């Protein structure tokens, strides 16, 4: 599988990591995908590892530590020792001051059951009782004290990234990553300056919801009756409507054409497109609800699209977006 350097650190991440929001038992993650039992989580992690994935993204917010525990329980059951894979987690700023970053790192390490925090991320730039500068400084303290391997952010704008990078630089550190939504159906980073800022600062963009919550696999287009089984919050936030299926169908058809040429699936092509389009700047963290999905997603890290195929998909995705304006 392709690998990418995490920001300016020495860490090599596989271009596909596994998103572990699916391992939440409560909160937003569970309301989006439903809960995942431990044996299923372990099977998903096993399949991802077998496919070559060497890192995992989780967060305190994914069930208040449940996802972190489910992930590391799976790793223990599979005989994976601390340090053999990388783990990224996140601090949720909502109604908290920057002081809680230092105060909660022990809880994160407890939830990770002996695994280190290789990347600690500020989950979102809003909701904290402290300014971003103070939050980033508290994160820098953790890295300087050896409690986390690197510092990242999530959902940050270009200006917020630059601010975070400057605060870290003053401490002799660098901003490793910004985790944002990126997919063929969400290309905001190309327009809002985030992609340019990432390239400029040497920051890795971690693409979340790279399959647009499953829409880009085409399975809902094949069987629209699946929409009725999607949980309400996912249906609303993910835009799972009959109208959205019709609007995006030309893009799904283009994905199918490219997939057929490679003996791949539409979802794999959607992931490979991100890696081709954005090059070394991007890694993707698709989530899996079932083991066979994890196997498919991991294999996308070996799929190479031609520039022509990537450009055709980009054009089709713009045309689809234009039809909504
Ligand atoms: N930083 C943030 O604010 C933020 C926000 C959201 C997510 N994230 C992170 O990003 C990760 C991924 O995002 P996401 O889970 O929202 O979206 P996603 O990766 O675009 O979609 C994942 C879902 O798509 C379906 N799927 C996956 N592989 C498939 C396959 N091969 N065939 C058919 N269906 C497949 C599964 O759902 P079904 O089987 O149920 O259809 C799966 O749960 C999360 O786990 C989390 O770690 C971060």
Automatic annotation (TrEMBL):
Q: NADP-dependent oxidoreductase domain location, by residue?
A: 15-314
Q: Which InterPro entries match?
A: AKR, AKR_Detox_Biosynth, NAD(P)_OxRdtase_dom_sf, NADP_OxRdtase_dom
Keyword rRNA-binding attributed: no
The alphabetized UniProt keywords are:
Oxidoreductase
Instruction: Extract the GO molecular function terms from the UniProt entry.
Output: oxidoreductase activity
Pfam families given for it?
Aldo_ket_red
Q: Which PANTHER family match?
A: NAD(P)-LINKED OXIDOREDUCTASE SUPERFAMILY PROTEIN (PTHR43364:SF4), NADH-SPECIFIC METHYLGLYOXAL REDUCTASE-RELATED (PTHR43364)
Protein name in UniProt: Aldo/keto reductase
